[in-house]
Design a protein that fits this description.
single chain; alpha+beta; Mago nashi protein; 7-stranded mixed β-sheet; two-stranded antiparallel ribbon; 4 helices; 9 strands; 28% strand; globular; disordered N terminus; DUF6438; DUF6438 domain-containing protein; signal
């Protein structure tokens, strides 16, 4: 009995030290091979959301803060949209199963952090963590590509910055 109680207390004590998940940490759940993009906060009033598209063309969205739509939404698009986005993001994809950080020539502070995750049907994920303030010619191209994705995916109206009473910045 004492051993069981001690083990339970030890488990409880260590679980209290486990960090809580933060908005933007978890990728959007997808049905098959897919890409999810978690757009995090900035110092101002930037929308915080997750979006994704899978190989079937299923587009998912989850608005977390400062977006026109809060919560989950999904729509169906053409499967070739997924292939086009995979192609556009291919130059930024790290090695299979790895997580990388974009590299900067110059850094602007207080910008949104974005995590792009490539999900493979085999259960393996590959991710790129990108700070929109991380400036270089390559990252400027990536920023333009990411800025255009909500429109390409048909969710531009969902991601629009929307301030609500009592919502703080950052």
């Amino acid at each position: 009995m004492t051993k069981t109680l001690s083990a339970a207390l030890a488990l409880l004590a260590t679980s209290a030290c486990t960090p809580m998940a933060q908005p933007g940490d978890a990728p959007v759940p997808l049905e098959s091979d897919g890409i999810s993009i978690a757009v995090g906060p900035c110092f101002g009033f930037c929308p915080v959301y997750e979006m994704g598209v899978d190989a079937s063309g299923r587009v998912t969205f989850h608005g977390e803060r400062l977006t026109a739509v809060l919560g989950p939404k999904a729509i169906q698009r053409r499967p070739d949209l997924y292939a086009a986005i995979v192609n556009d993001l291919a130059r930024y994809k790290p090695m299979l199963g790895k997580t990388s950080q974009s590299r900067c020539d110059q850094q602007i502070s207080d910008q949104q952090h974005i995590t792009i995750t490539w999900h493979a049907n085999i259960g393996q994920s590959t991710a790129l963590r990108h700070d929109k303030g991380c400036r270089s010619s390559e990252n400027d191209r990536l920023n333009r590509l990411l800025d255009g994705l909500p429109s390409r995916l048909g969710m531009e109206d969902w991601t629009k910055q929307t301030r609500r009473t009592g919502t703080s910045r950052g």
